């Protein structure tokens, strides 16, 4: 945070003009620059001790911009400088909640904890704790990711057993790898990633169809069993009525019995037709399920082939990003624990 909170320079930049100029840029560049200008303007107001105006500017920084984490940390810092420790603590922890497992967040928490005066030792310890907890959890998740000695690209690119927020933080590191940009390493790699995203959607759609077919199969089984139970009951009624029939007797009671038997036979024919339809459909469903399973398997193979075709570039990005991310997390975890222990040892309430 230090570079953004230095004394106000003798010549203050014209941010309004810069923001207007930023609006003339392409959307992506405009998004990054306009948010960074708001961050710089808010930081200058913070350095000038205009805390309210600083927060008003910093809260305008969009939450998905590259400047969002630092803006959130500066808002927390403004409350601390304004002697509002509870609000400062809430904002620091809010930053950790909204941007978890990112080294910029954890480094900011530790830096903020280091800046706390003695009378704010409680806040400092809470920030050290939060930074240490997140660093330790992310390290454990990364160890799980590489438990088989190699990183599965699908486990990073798509939701997987890896904690979703850790996965997103790591993927973000891969996308912004300073040595090898995952998205611009080659046009072939970009196509591979795009194809994988499309194939994943197809796979999800097929998976939903498969679940629906399996559910229908279970429903048909229940319907067939219910119809069979009804047929068994009707057959028993028919046998009972047939035993009461008297040949060549057409009195009212015998006519009623014959009418009932006719109705039961018609009902039996309808139910037999329903069972026949269910049986035909049930015979077709397994083949449909097998076809869908085959399609899903084929899509998976296509995805793996796409990855293999650009494997070297993907592997280089994942491995270098993994090493850098793991190293930084380990250092941050150690620093948080060390600073926590030192602050606690020297604190005398």
Automatic annotation (TrEMBL):
KW Coiled coil (keyword) present: yes
Top-level taxon of the source organism: Bacteria
Keywords assigned: Coiled coil
Coiled coil feature spans: 203-244
Protein name: Uncharacterized protein
Species per Swiss-Prot/TrEMBL record: Alcanivorax jadensis T9
């Amino acid at each position: 945070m230090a570079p953004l909170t230095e004394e106000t320079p003798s010549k203050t930049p014209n941010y309004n003009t810069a923001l207007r100029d930023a609006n003339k840029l392409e959307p992506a560049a405009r998004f990054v620059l306009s948010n960074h200008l708001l961050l710089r303007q808010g930081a200058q107001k913070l350095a000038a001790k205009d805390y309210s105006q600083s927060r008003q500017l910093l809260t305008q920084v969009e939450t998905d911009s590259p400047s969002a984490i630092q803006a959130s940390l500066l808002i927390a810092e403004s409350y601390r400088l304004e002697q509002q420790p509870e609000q400062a603590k809430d904002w620091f922890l809010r930053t950790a909640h909204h941007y978890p497992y990112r080294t910029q967040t954890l480094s900011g928490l530790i830096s903020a904890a280091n800046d706390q005066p003695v009378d704010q030792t409680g806040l400092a310890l809470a920030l050290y704790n939060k930074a240490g907890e997140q660093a330790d959890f992310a390290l454990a998740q990364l160890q799980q990711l590489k438990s088989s000695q190699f990183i599965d690209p699908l486990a990073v690119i798509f939701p997987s057993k890896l904690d979703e927020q850790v996965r997103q933080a790591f993927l973000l590191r891969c996308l912004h790898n300073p040595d090898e940009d995952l998205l611009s390493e080659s046009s072939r790699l970009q196509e591979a990633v795009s194809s994988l995203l499309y194939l994943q959607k197809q796979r999800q759609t097929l998976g939903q169809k498969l679940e629906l077919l399996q559910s229908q199969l279970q429903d048909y089984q229940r319907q067939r069993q219910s119809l069979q139970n009804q047929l068994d009951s009707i057959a028993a009624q028919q046998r009972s009525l047939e035993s009461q029939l008297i040949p060549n007797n057409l009195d009212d009671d015998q006519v009623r019995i014959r009418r009932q038997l006719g109705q039961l036979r018609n009902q039996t024919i309808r139910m037999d037709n329903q069972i026949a339809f269910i049986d035909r459909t049930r015979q077709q469903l397994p083949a449909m399920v097998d076809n869908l399973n085959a399609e899903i398997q084929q899509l998976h193979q296509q995805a793996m082939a796409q990855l293999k075709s650009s494997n070297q570039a993907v592997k280089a990005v994942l491995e270098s990003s993994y090493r850098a991310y793991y190293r930084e997390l380990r250092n941050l975890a150690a620093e948080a624990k060390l600073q926590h222990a030192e602050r606690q040892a020297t604190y005398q309430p």
